[in-house]
Backbone:
């Protein structure tokens, strides 16, 4: 799958470039860091932070428990 940089969440339309809905954990690295976030729709996202900003590199499915 190609990167989803610069798009919105296909599940709820939350802009990927916006502030994460909820940050679950942050893992700083030498070049920036990795963020695990949860979208407004409940899907898990892995975001990589580097000199160019934040990219969503992996996205899960919306929470089945959500409405
Ligand atoms: Zn979403």
Residues:
């Amino acid at each position: 799958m190609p990167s989803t940089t610069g798009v919105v969440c296909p599940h709820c339309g939350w802009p990927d470039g916006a502030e994460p809905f909820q940050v679950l954990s942050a893992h700083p690295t030498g070049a920036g860091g990795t963020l695990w976030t949860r979208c407004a729709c409940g899907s898990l996202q892995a975001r990589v932070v580097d000199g160019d900003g934040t990219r969503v590199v992996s996205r899960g499915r919306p929470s089945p428990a959500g409405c």
Q: What stands out?
A: The beta strands are 22-29, 32-38, 44-50, 53-59. The pocket of zinc ion is lined by residues 9, 11-12, 14, 39-41, 43 (CB under 6 Å). The chain has a mean pLDDT of 85. The chain has no helices and four strands.
